[in-house]
Amino acid sequence: MAQNRIFTAKNCIIGILVLLVLIQFFRIDKTNPPIVEAKEFATIANPPQDVALILHESCYDCHSNTTTYPWYSNVAPASWFLKHHINDGRRHLNFSEWGSYTAKKADHKLEECIEMVEEGEMPLTSYTLMHPEGKLTKVEQQKLLDWIKAYRKTNS
Description:
With 156 residues, the chain is mostly helical. The protein contains 8 helices and no strands. The chain is 56% helix and 0% strand.
């Protein structure tokens, strides 16, 4: 009688495996939007090289149009989560579009950067788990915060 059931454990496992194979055909778009250097944050703000490096290693993958897609961006459903995360990050702050922001909006974005870094919310733990080089040391965190605060003072 147990063998006649439609939903046996074996059938469930086979169904899950088939589903996992089928979802691989739903790929994400990994095309980065074009970059206009004149709008890029590093071009406009001209941070010191060490600060620029911190921004690129810890922020730019999700908050710019220069995303480097890792190997797991080829595996659904992880790729879907990743793409959603990148789109959301760019929506909140896009360093590649910095020159499009009004002065008031840019200042607010910097204020949010300070808050997020001070509270340890950025970079996200889910990012630094897969990209340990993106995790900020206390020294890097302070260097970044000091520079952003100084930049805000001179550009407000």
